[in-house]
Design a protein that fits this description.
The structure holds two protein chains of two kinds. By secondary structure, chain A is of the alpha/beta class. Helix content of chain A is about 50%, strand content about 20%. In chain A, strands 2-1-3-4-6-5 form a six-stranded parallel β-sheet, with helices on both faces. Chain B has one domain: Rossmann fold (3-Layer(aba) Sandwich), CATH 3.40.50. The chains are: A alpha/beta, B alpha/beta.
Chain lengths: ~180, ~200
């Protein structure tokens, strides 16, 4: 498999898991690492991509979706986790199921020093907020981990996060216009 | 249905306004109320399984109503909120405008104050106009309400308006007292889903 095919394959595995689980709303703040998944979500029948401008709105949106009988998933970058902290109290207090899929910055090969602080503390922030975290380091990890995170959230009425490691997602560089390994 | 009253300052009384707004509500109306006085107003008007009250999560009422409205296109979904909460969650107001949901209605009770924290003024007391903001955020139907007669029209408006709709109602800053709805979020969630979807907690 070429590198590009492999990069597409694990993103498609997330999409397939969403479809199999009956995810109907995908709320997101864009990230280059989620570009392909966001595009597939927008194009999918029976799935609504909900574009929000800040991540806490996605948490509230998906609580509303569940109140209305629809399953949701949240896509964001690790820097967005900081924006969700107070709104996660809505999910926690009311036991709204919430699976989150987070592309990591501030770790493997990070070129932007401003991304380090939030990236290095993302998992700790989530765990302090009561979110169960699973890391994916390799393409082979992704499909099963995503399914586990969705099932656990919806079977347990709890909040889960899959942290997609920067080594897996690809490293962004200013020199290539910022698209890095995600330029497709 | 009660008559909408005014306070000595000449502005609309929030409690009788909300009572009038949701009087004889239809079965297809779902309401997400923002934290603080909007929750008390809605509870005072009559508790209902399709009321979801926020006791925290400030800024969440509108985006939560957005997710609910997208999930339930055949129902009418109202976010009942205040100026303080909307100012914290302007991004949510924008997202809901951009999403273009025809069944979404936002009612902003604008007293120009943070009522829960000591009546400090909000931006709306200093020139920020939320009805004008809603125009810029893509809302299709907008009401900028200042009088009792205008406010009384909202009772029928919420049943027929094509959203995304936003009404900003200038209300008196005079506090109306607490009417506390149930605080248990898990209970509120289950009773809402049971009434709306017919599903029991597992």
């Amino acid at each position: 498999m070429t590198d590009q095919a492999q990069a597409d394959a694990w993103r498609d595995a997330i999409f397939d898991a969403f479809q199999d689980a009956g995810i109907a709303q995908v709320a997101y703040v864009p990230d280059a690492g989620h570009k392909r998944l966001i595009e597939r979500t927008h194009a999918a029948n029976g799935m609504r991509a909900m574009s929000v401008a800040t991540e806490e709105d996605a948490v509230a949106c998906l609580a509303g979706a569940w109140l209305g009988g629809q399953k949701g998933a949240l896509l964001m970058q690790s820097s967005g986790v900081g924006n969700t902290i107070n709104m996660l109290s809505l999910a926690k207090t009311c036991q709204f199921p919430l699976p989150m899929f987070i592309t990591m910055r501030g770790e493997w090969g990070e070129f932007n020093s401003w991304q380090m602080q939030m990236g290095e503390t993302t998992q700790a922030h989530l765990e302090l907020s009561g979110v169960k975290c699973y890391r994916c380091e390799t393409p082979e990890d992704v499909a099963e981990t995503v399914r586990v995170a969705i099932d656990q959230a919806y079977n347990g009425n709890c909040q889960t996060a899959v942290l997609l490691a920067q080594k897996l997602v690809g490293t962004k560089k200013f020199s290539d216009g910022g698209l890095g390994d995600n330029k497709k | 249905m009660s008559t909408i009253e005014t306070k000595p300052d000449g502005l609309i009384d929030r409690r009788t306004f909300v009572d009038h707004l949701v009087a004889n509500r239809s079965d297809d109306l779902c309401i997400v109320a923002g934290l603080g006085s909007p929750c008390y107003d809605l509870k005072a008007a009559g508790d209902h399984p399709l009321n979801f009250y926020l006791y925290g999560a400030m800024g969440g009422a509108v985006p939560m109503a957005m997710g609910l409205a997208a999930a339930q296109p055949e129902k009418r979904v109202m976010a009942l909120t205040g100026d303080g909460e909307v100012l914290m969650g302007l991004t949510g107001l924008a997202a809901a405008g951009a999403e273009g949901l025809e069944n979404l209605i936002v009612i902003v009770l604008d007293n120009e104050r943070y009522g829960e924290t000591g009546q400090q003024t909000t931006h709306t007391a200093r020139g920020v106009n939320l009805a004008q903001t809603a125009i810029g955020l893509g809302y299709r139907a907008i009401r900028d309400i200042k009088t009792q007669d205008e406010a009384a029209e909202l009772h029928d408006w919420i049943k027929t308006v094509q959203g995304p709709a936003c009404a900003v109602v200038k209300i008196s800053a005079e506090a109306a007292g607490m009417a506390l709805p149930p605080q248990d979020g898990v209970y509120l969630k289950h009773r809402f889903r049971e009434r709306l979807l017919g599903v029991q907690p597992r």
